[in-house]
């Protein structure tokens, strides 16, 4: 089995819009890298944060796993 892993960092502004995102660790397979990028660009519809919750943009890190059998 081959385990593939990528880490994406996403910065979300207080108004719920994605400010930017990048791969902290990317995959060698371009198709696996493009899919999360398309999803994040399309899903730029998050709700605004409550005023009492955070005062700065939120930084999230997502780890994506893809397992393939060899």
Report on the structure:
- This protein is an alpha+beta fold.
- It has one domain.
- It is built from one helix and three strands, in the order E-E-H-E.
- Strands 2-1-3 form a three-stranded antiparallel sheet, with helices on one face.
- 1% of the residues are buried.
- The mean pLDDT is 77.
Domain count: 1
Helix content: 10-25%
User: Strand pairing plus helix content: what structural class?
Assistant: alpha+beta
Low-pLDDT segments, ≥5 res? none
Kindly state the mean pLDDT as a whole number?
77
Strand count:
3
Indicate the overall shape.
Answer: elongated
Order of helices and strands: EEHE
Strand residues, percent: 35-45%
**How many angstroms separate the termini?**
5 Å
Secondary structure layout:
Layout (H helix, E strand, L loop, with lengths): L1 E11 L5 E8 L4 H13 L15 E11 L2
Antiparallel strand pairs: 1-2, 1-3
Short structural summary:
By secondary structure, the chain is an alpha+beta fold. Helix content is 19%, strand content 43%. The chain has one domain (2-68).
Write out key terms for the chains shown:
elongated, 3-stranded antiparallel β-sheet, alpha+beta, 70 residues, 1 helix
